[in-house]
Amino acid sequence: MAPTALITGITGQDGAYLAQLLLGKGYEVYGVVRRSSHFGIADHRLRWLKIQKDVRFLDANLTDLSSLVRSVEAARPDEVYNLGAQSYVASSWQQPLLTGNVTGLGAANVLEAVRIAQPNAHFYQASSSEMFGLIQEAHQSERTPFYPRSPYGAAKLFAHWMTVNYRESFAMHASSGILFNHESPLRGIEFVTRKVTDAVARIKLGLSDELRLGNIDAKRDWGHARDYVEAMWMMLQQEKPDDYVVATGRTTSVRDMVEIAFGHVGLKSSNYLVIDPALFRPAEVDILLGDPTKARKTLGWEPKTTLEEMICEMVDADLERHNNQGHL
Ligand code: GDP
C-alpha cells in the first residue's frame, strides 16, 4: 500500500516542494488548507509545480484542534509534516499574539491531534534558525543554546520544545528540523531574496527603477528549499526521531546576495539600491551560519544548489513571470 502523508502549510513554499517530492516517491498526499469565502484555496504554488490535482485537500486550521483531529482521522497518515505557520519575522512584531497562536500553539495542536488520532505516525516539526537569534556560537549546531530575537523565533522555540517533549513523554516518533533560511522561485515576495530577485527582474524589464531595502549588512546561511525538503523526509525515515540542523555552512550578506542578482542581468546595484530606515527591524538577527555535520553524517544529506545558482534561478523565474504576466 502507498504510504500516506499529511502536510500543514501545503500551499507555502516548503509544502509545495515537499508534496512534489512525496508524490514522486509514490505517496498519497493530503494537505491541510484554510478555506475562506473569498480566497478559496491559495494553491498557486502547487499549480506552478503542476501537482494541484494530485493533492487531496482537507479543510482545517492550526488554531482549531478538532479540525486537525478530523483531518488526521480522515487521512490516517504514516507521516505528518507541520510546516504551517505565520512565518514572516517582520510581521511577527505587528501580530505577536497571532504568531504565538499559529506558529507556537498551532504546533502543539498538531502534536495533540497526532497523539489522539494516529500516535504511531512519524511527525516532523519545521523548526527554524531564527531560534538562534542573538547567536551564542559562531557555527550553530544542535547543541548551540537558543536566543530568539522576535515573536516568531519565540513561538518557533515553544513548538520545538513541545516536539522534544512529545518525543520524550509519549515515545512519539517526533523530529525537528532546524532549517536555516531556504529560498526558491516559490518564496513569498516579502522575504529578502525574493524581494530582490523580483525587483531586479522588474528593473531589467523597465517596470521599476529602484529597490528599497533595510539592513543589508545582515548575513544569512541561504539554501534551496527543494534541497531542504529532502532532509525533512530523510528525518522521518530514520529508526529514531531526533533534531537536525539543515544548512549549507556558508553565510552571505544581503549586500552580496543583491550583487549576485543584479550581476546576473548585467546591471549595477548602486544605480538602483535605496536604503530605507523604515525597513529596519526592532531587533535584528545579524548573522546566521549553520553547522550541518549531523545531518550529513546521520542522514547522508547534502545541499545540492549553490547560492549563486539559486539566485539566478529565482531572477530567471521572475523575468519569465513578468514577461508572461503570471503569478507566483
Ligand atoms: P528572516 O531571516 O526569516 O527574517 O528572512 P528575511 O528574508 O525576511 O530577512 C533576512 C534578512 O534580510 C534580515 O536580517 C532582514 O533585516 C534583512 N533585510 C534587509 N532589507 C530587507 C527587506 O526589505 N525585506 C526583508 N524581508 N528583509 C530585509
Q: Give the spatial strand order of the biggest sheet.
A: 3-2-1-4-5-6-11
Bound ligand species: guanosine-5'-diphosphate
Estimate what percentage of residues fall within beta strands. 15-25%
Give the termini distance in whole angstroms: 34 Å
Give me the secondary-structure category.
Answer: alpha/beta
How many strands in all?
Answer: 13
Given the C-alpha coordinates, what overall shape results?
globular
Task: Give the % helix.
Answer: 40-55%
Reading the helices and strands in chain order gives EHEHEHEHHEHEEHEEEHEEHEHH
Poorly predicted runs of 5 or more residues: none
- Annotation field: number of helices: 11
Largest sheet: 7 strands, parallel
Radius of gyration based on Cα positions: 19 Å
Please tell me the overall pLDDT: 96
In short:
With 328 residues, this protein is α/β, with parallel strands linked by helices. Helices cover 42% and strands 15% of the residues. It has helices spanning 13-24, 44-48, 65-75, 89-94, 96-117, 151-170, 192-204, 225-237, 254-264, 293-299, 307-324; strands at 4-8, 28-33, 56-59, 79-82, 122-128, 174-179, 182-183, 211-213, 219-220, 223-224, 243-246, 252-253, 273-275.
